[in-house]
Every structure is written in structure tokens, then in C-alpha cells.
Specification:
Strand 15 and strand 16 form a beta hairpin. The strands form 8 sheets. This protein has a 13-stranded parallel β-sheet, with helices on one face. Helix content is 8%, strand content 33%. It folds into 4 domains: 83 residues; 69 residues, no CATH class; 107 residues, no CATH class; 329 residues. It contains 6 helices and 57 strands. The chain is mainly beta.
Length: 715
Amino acid sequence: MRESPEDRSRRAVALVALFLVTLFAFPASSGAAERIWVSPRGSDANPGTKAAPLVTVEAAQDAARKSLRLRPGRNVTVILRDGVYRLKRPLKLTAQDSARARHMVVYRAYQEEQPVISGAVRVPGSAWFRVDAETDIWRAKVGRVATRELYVNGERATRAATSEYPTGFRPSWNGGGAGSGIAYLPSIEPAGLNPATWGNPAEWANPGDVEAVILTQWKTMTVPVDSVTPASASTPGLLQMAEPAWRNANVFRTPNGGPGPWSFWQVTRFENALEFLDSPGEWYLDEESGWLYYKPQPWQNIRAADVELPVLEALIRGRGTATKPIRNVEFRGLTFSYATWLQPSGDNGYVSDQGGFHLVGEGHEPNTIGHDPNDVATPGNVSIRFGRNVRFLGNRFEHLGSVGLALGTGSQHTLVRRNTFADVGSSALTLSGIAAADHNPSSQAQRSVGNTIAANLISRVGWGYPDAPGIFVGFSSGTKIVRNTIKEVPWSGIAIGWGWGLLDPGGFPGLPNATAHQWGQWETPTPNRNGLVAENTIREFLGLLWDGGAIYTTGAQGTSMENGLRIEANVAYGKRPKAGGNTFYTDGGSRYITVRGNVSYDNPIGKTDFGPPPRPGDPLPYPAGPSELDGAAYGSDSGGCVTYGDIAFIGNSWLQPPMKSAMELNNIAYALLTGGKLVPYSPEGFFDVCPYSSDGVSYPTNLSYSGNTIHPAEP
């Protein structure tokens, strides 16, 4: 039917009306709704344009969500101008922050500017007053805040602490009952023992703030003091320790049932008291009174300094779900800085199992294998769970108190590229986890699949929790860790896997004293497969602890050699010379791994070190048993403890000093450690400190070496 002139006129009027309604219903939608500008000099009353930006990231997130609702088929970019954005609470991401397929929501820096997302409050110079001219201790009123970190002009300050291995303190374990805690006798005289300022715990002004710390092999433990019972003449006093931290710190036992070298058997140091504040660069926060104390370095003018007190435990907290994941979100060119983590200050303390995973709460049964099946992860100051196609590109993660970036359960196709991680309390980066949802996922949504960690610079991590590796990957498939530089790490550079075979089909007991299926009947292979660790440079590892490596693995990494883990073309050097460990460390239950074309040098054989014996004159000496194992040669370029096998070393180049004679000299120490005489080096150099046989099979099985260059060759 032909349209009449009247119909055409009415249709034209309707189209004009529709255009006008659309125009005024969505003012500036094609500009501000898709490019949202933020500046410290803006206002949240502004429309968020370049000329009139918003002032907070929270307001920008709200604007981005509105744009996604109104125009879901477009990209949304939040552009942050130069400056500091101090968050009052974590920025929480959910599925509402997601873009549709083939689109992105991007939070990025403007051109070459450096916006900082901060969780700190600044202590103004005018707040500082000198307490005592002789000690040069200053204090500032900061109010009722809590933190475990302080930064002065961008440098991490040191929590006030005693000297290492103080005398007169003897941890004792009595099932958590009377007499269980740390016994002490004041050790002030003779000269050379503890100073009078802190030698008598009964005189500590705030004993509930104090924490006892131990570093032992690959573990770190921090347990708060609950109360102090004074000593009386020659009768020791007692530091009653917080529970359940103290009980958990003594879960790992010797075969005879007593606490062993992995328990809290000696005090490495005490932290967090005004009485301990005696060295430049140290600080103490009296949370009850709100006074912050600091002893400046000689070159610091504290009243002119930038003093940052981190108070937030999270900067970004992404919480997708299995059914509503966070999709298509990118962070680019931002700095995530100044955050803390407060759990270790509470009754759980920090009781490490391994790699940043630790014991919390009740119900942890004593064991002799050194590990617990119910650990929890150290949280991330930036974290994403159930993320799909989430990208972190060219950001800085620095001055942080826990894990820098934690990519949790259900992380899929995440890209972490060209970021810098420096001065981080725990690991720089963790991917997936160790819970049942990770190692035995019930749905595809729970799996961590196809993630890439590439070309990042990681340095000076593990400041607060040195048991944490630079990068940790739990259970995942198709993970690529490529072309990263990792340096100055206190334990391992990269750690992959969990369970020591106990979470794999067959329940392989990949730990001394373990029994098959000790952690349950798991008949489905874990998601681990098709992993690649390639072209990374790892240097200055094992900088504080020992019994780790440049690249550390545990458990099955596939279901065959064809889909197993490939460790290729990595360079590792500069291990702390005295630190015992294996450069390429395929530990308990490790299986289906190809180690090809890697280079190791300047990684000399280290030694065991369970801590020194009591100092001469100690009025309350502790048992020196673990210390009797010190000094035995430990480690090689390849090795593991109760390794399963199916591991191929092909075309690697490493330096291995002659070791046969050294092993013969150290067999006495190894007999004490393992209960039997052994020669822990295979002819090819595999360091096997825990030989294991079962049903006539000697492990590791199918361990092969071909085309490797070893310098110098052993005579």
C-alpha cells in the first residue's frame, strides 16, 4: 500500500520526536558514559568529563555501572589522572562491573601519568613531637587505627623488635594447658645478654601487643602474647600465648609426639613493643592510646617526611560467583599501594604451613608430616575470584602487607603482563588455591583455566611472611608463566602445586611419615595439566629461609608426560650460598614434568640450618636438638623429597660441585634427620634426601637425564 503524504508527515514527526526523546533521555551518553574521567582535583558532583572530572574511584565505578546498564554493547573506560586516590573502603567488584563479550571495562592511567590507589592515611608533619632527645624517639597522635606497616618517604619502616634469638626464653608445650607457652627468666646480667629495656617481660607496658616470631626451615610463625606471669627469683615466669595460634604453632610433631623443628621450639625474636624501639627506622603503634612512635634515620626530617600508615586490608576486592563471574575488566597503568593485613595480630596469629598457606581456627590434628590438610590462603590486597578475561597490564603493586594480587578459584583466561611487584608482605601473585573447589572442582566454573603471567618484574616480596614464594599457582590447567624476572625472594621463586601426592588418585604419600590416602580418597585427577614455566629469570632466591628452590613443584602436574608441566629455558642464579635447597625442586609427589634447556649457575650447595643452640650463659636454655642437625650439606640443581617420578631432565646446563665425599661426611647428620644412613645423590645429581620404597618399587620412578651439561664433572 502506497504511503499517503499525511502518513509520511506523521511518520517524520514521530521520528523527530523519538530522536529528541533519545537525545534528552541520555544526555552526553556517547561521550561521558563511555569515557569517565577522574582527578584528585575533580568533584563527584561533576559529570565525569575531561573538563569536569569526578574525584573518587567509587563515583567512577558507579558511573561505569550506569553506563553498562544503559549502553551494554559499548566499551567503558575510566581514565584516572595523576595523583593519589585514598580509598575509605575497598573497591568491590561484582558481575555488575562486567562488560559483554568482545567489550571491556577499563580502568587506566591517562597517558604517562601515575595515579595511585592508596589504602593509607597520611601522618602530617605537624603531628610529630620528639619524646626524648637522647633516644631521638618521636610520636604522633593518629587515633584508633590498626596496621602492621609504616612507610616513611616510600621506604618500609621496621616494626620494633628485639635482637635475634634473645636469651632466657624457652618455649614449652603442655597440650595447651597450664605451663604451656614461653617460659622465661629475666636475662639482663651479665652484660652481653638482653638489655634492661626489654629483658624482663613483666615490665612490658603492653604485653598484649607483643608477638613471638620463629623462622624455621621453610616456615614462619607469629604468635601474639596473651598475658604475662612474672618470674619469682629462680622460678621462671610464663608468657601465655594467644589461642588457637599457640596450639596450631605446635601441630607439627616429631614421631615421639613432641613438638619438633617445624614447631615453635625457639624464639627468633619478639616484635611490637615500645621497649623494643631502639634502632633508627623502627616504629611502634600503641593502638589503645592512638600514639605512633618512630625513631628516624639520621638523614630523615620526620616533620618534612611523607609518612604513610596503611589501614585498609584490601584495595580491590573482586567477588564474582560461579554463576555470575566478573567478565572483561582491565586495569592498566595504575599503582596499587599502601595496604595492610591484620589477621596475624589476632588470636590466630600467623602459623605457616608452606608458601603463604597457614592454619586458622580449631580442629587441626597433630601430625608428623609437617603439613595440614585444612590450610587457608593469605588474602590479596588486590583480589579477584571467579574472573573471566580479567587483565592487569603495566600496573605497579608496591608497599603492600599481604599478597599483592590474588587470583582465586575460577580464574579463567586472566592476563597479568608487564606489571611491577615490589615491597610486598607475602607473595607477589597467587593463582587458584588449594581447597577442594580447586583440586577437585565440582563444575567447570570452579576451574582455573588458560591464565597467563608474563613479563612481570617481581622483587623484594615476602617482607612479613618469608615463607611465601614470588609466584604461587595451586591447581590449574593451561597456565603460562613466561618471561618474568623474579629476584630477592626469601624462599622460592615460583611454587606450583600442592598436596605432595596425597590429593592425587592413589593418594601417593609424598612426605616422610605419610600414609597413602592420609588426606582422603581422591580418585579424580586434579586440574593440573598443560602448564608452561618458560624463559623466566630467577635470582637471589632463598634469601632468608632454606629448603626451597628457584622453581618448586609438588604433586602430579598432569595425567601423562604429554600433558604435564614443562619447565623450559629458565635461568636461575645467585642463591644465598648457605641456604640448602634445590634449584629445580620437584618435591613430594611431583610427577609428569619435563625440565628442558634451563641454566643454573652461582647456586652453590647449601646447608641445613634449624636455628642456633642456646647462647652461653642463657639462664633458661631450650633443647638444642634441632640445632644438632645444622651444617649438613643440602641440595643440588635437581632434587626432591619422596618424589613420585616420571620426570625428564633434558639439555640443561648447571654447575654442581663434587659431592660424594661431602655426603659421606654428613651421613651422621642425615641419620639423625631421617632415621637411616643414605647417600642422597643419584649419579646424575638428583638430591634425594628422603628415599622411599613401597611394594618393591623404589621412588622416584622413571627419572631420566639426557644431554645435560654439568660443570665441573665429578671425578
